[in-house]
Amino acid sequence: MIKEIQAKVLLSHVKQPDDWFGLKYNMNLYRGCQHRCIYCDSRSECYRIEDFDGEILVKANAIDLLRKELASKRVKGTIGTGSMNDPYMPLEAEVNLTGRALAVIAEFRFPVHIMTKSALVLRDLDTLCRISQVYAAVSFTITTADDDLGRKLEPGAPLVSERFRAMRVLADHGILTGVSMMPILPFVEDDEENVRRIVDMAEAHGASYIIPWFGMSLRDRQRAYYYGKLDELFPGLRRRYERVFGDQYHCAVPRADRLARAFHALCDRCGIATRIVPYEPATGTQLSLF
Question: Could you tell me the CATH number of the domain that includes residue 251?
Answer without folding.
Answer: 3.20.20.70
